[in-house]
Structures are given as structure tokens and as C-alpha cells.
Amino acid sequence: LDVEYEDSLLFSLIDKKGRELAKAYEGRQDLIVVASLVERIPNLAGLARTCEVFKASALTVADKKILEDRQFKLISVTAEQWVPILEVKEGALIRYLERMKDEGYAVLGLEQTANSVAVNNYSFPSRVVLVLGREKDGIPVNLIQTLDACLEIPQLGMIRSLNVHVSGAIAVWEYTKQHLQGGPGL
């Protein structure tokens, strides 16, 4: 009798957790944020939080061990429990991006190049993989060659760049804004 009761409690708990996860994954945008080149934990945690808030379908990181880091957990505010986080190591990025293209995603980089398009002037398609670069060096040339387009954030000041988490959040918001309005790309 005790075993049956414990089994009943366990199944009830599993069912409840399954309903919570289904609700969390419901209505996700077709946006994957690739942060496999980002190294600093505060940036990764902030990106996890941004991805959860705007219901990105996934965030990639180079090493999922960061999910256990105390600082990560403090900054992410449990976002890692509600947004799928995938491990894609740097050496596997080109293959991953090519696979995503084969699945119908536009692969975009957030990087200042001679051919970059201002993020606010770009019409985001519905299925996007957004690649973010390293904190200091940006996106390596070999990865830029894999991208469908590079986007940049228009800047008015003297400093040449924003923090990678801030930049990622701005681009995710621009994608979200366009799709909330039923605008470009839908």
C-alpha cells in the first residue's frame, strides 16, 4: 500500500512538472541565440535571461557546466530552467550553423563589417539563428563566411561597441518587436 501511494505521488509530481515544462515551451519564437563564443558567465547568464523573457527557442553555449555556476544562477534568475540550453562547442559551430541552414533557418551574425545591415533596418525572417561573437574579438572570419548576413546596432557615441549581452538583447528585442507587430519576415 505504501509503495502504491509513493508511486502515485511520484507520478503526480512527474505529471505536474511535465505540464509546467509544456507551458514554458509553448509559444516559443523560432529564434536560436548562439552564444558558444561568449566566455564570461555574467554575459551568458544575462543572455539566458533575455532568451527566456523573449521566449527564444534555444540558447547555445560552449559548455553546459556553466549552468551549475553560482554566479550564473544568481544572474539568470532560474531562466536556465525555462529556456532550452544546448551545448555547441566552438569546433562544432560551422557544422551546427550549416545544419540549421539546411533546416530552413537564416543564420545571422551580430557583427560590424563593411556589409553589415543596421538591425533596425533588417527584415527578420521567422526562423533565425543569431550568432554572437567573443567579448573582445567578435565573430571569427571563418564563421562570418558561413553567415547569411551580418547585423549591427547603430551607434552614436565614440565607443565602438556594446557589451555582448546588451547587443544580443537589443537584437533579440528587434526580432521580437517585428514578429509581435506581424511585421517584416512573417
UniProtKB/TrEMBL annotation:
Catalytic activity: guanosine(18) in tRNA + S-adenosyl-L-methionine = 2'-O-methylguanosine(18) in tRNA + S-adenosyl-L-homocysteine + H(+)
Pfam families associated with the record: SpoU_methylase
Keyword field contains Transmembrane helix: no
A GO biological-process term: tRNA methylation
The tRNA/rRNA methyltransferase SpoU type domain, residue ranges: 31-172
Matching SUPFAM superfamilies: alpha/beta knot
Function description: S-adenosyl-L-methionine-dependent 2'-O-ribose methyltransferase that catalyzes the formation of 2'-O-methylguanosine at position 18 (Gm18) in a subset of tRNA. Selectively mediates Gm18 methylation of tRNAGln-TTG/CTG and tRNASer-TGA/GCT. Gm18 modification can enhance the stability of modified tRNAs.
Protein name from the UniProt record: tRNA (guanosine(18)-2'-O)-methyltransferase TARBP1
